Amino acid sequence: MRLDHVGIAVHSIDETARLYAEAFGLRVTERYATPSAGVRLAFIPAGGVDLELLEPAGDGPVSTFLASHGPGLHHLAFRVPDIHRAIAEAVNAGCRAVDAAPRPGARGHLIAFLHPASAGGVLIEFVQAGHP
Amino acid sequence: MRLDHVGIAVHSIDETARLYAEAFGLRVTERYATPSAGVRLAFIPAGGVDLELLEPAGDGPVSTFLASHGPGLHHLAFRVPDIHRAIAEAVNAGCRAVDAAPRPGARGHLIAFLHPASAGGVLIEFVQAGHP
Fold first, then answer.
1. How far is CA B77 from the centre of its chain?
2. Taking CB atoms and an 8 Å limit, are B120 and A1 in contact across chains?
3. pLDDT tens readout for residues B75-123
4. What interhelical angle do B13-24 and A83-92 show, nearest 10?
5. Which chain B residue shows the shortest CA-CA distance from A92?
6. Cα separations (Å) of A11 from A67, B81, B85?
7. pTM of the full predicted structure?
8. Cβ atoms within 10 Å of B47's Cβ, excluding its own
C-alpha cells in the first residue's frame, strides 16, 4: 500500500493551479468533471504522488466540506492492488467503510472511502487501478 | 519540488501507529522527540512519501491544532534543493512565510513553513536535506 494522492478542497481549481505553479513550480496535468459526484478534479504531480484539487460542481460532499472547514487538506488516497481485500482488512481493524462496495472514480479507477472518525480523523480513500 | 511527507496531528502516536499497521499494513520506522517544539514525531513510509504523525509534547502548535480541529491532516511538506530560494519564490507569488529564516527540523533537515491563509488553506512546509 502506497500513497497515491492527497486531496485538497478548493474554491477554484484555476486560482489554486495558478498559486501552485507560481509559488511551487507545480503544474496541473489532468482535469476531470464528474458533476454526478458534485465535483471537478485536477491532478498536480508532485514527485510520485499527486495533489488532487477538488472544486465543488453543485451540491455534494466537497461543497459541504468547504462550507464547514474552508479550503484545505481533504483526504489521503492509498493505491492498493485489491480494493475489496483492502476494505475488508481495514474493517477488520475497526474502520468503517463509507461505500458499501467500491465504485468507479476518476482515471478509470475503482475507489472506496473510510469514515474519518474510524481512521484517526483522516478521510482515507483506497484506489485500485482499472476496472475489474 | 516533490512531496516529502504529509503531517497528521494525532492524540497518540502509539494508538495511530497501531491503527495504520493493522488497517493498512504501514509501519512506523522512525521516532523523534523535540520537546522544545512541543511535539513528538513518528514517520511511516508509504511508498516514496512519508506520513508524519505529530503528537503534542506539552503546549505548542500541535496541541493548539488538536484543541480546535481534533486529529487529522495537518500539513504538506515539499522537499526542495534550496530552501532559501523556495521561500523567496513562494513569497514572490504572494505566500507569507511563518519562519523568518529556515530552522533545524527532524532528521537533520532545514525546514520552513508558509501561512495556510496565504497558500489555499494548506499549511505548507519546505524541507531541505542536511544542514548548510
1. 6
2. no
3. 999 999 999 999 999 999 999 999 879 999 888 899 999 999 999 999 9
4. 140
5. B23
6. 10, 31, 28
7. 0.95
8. 14
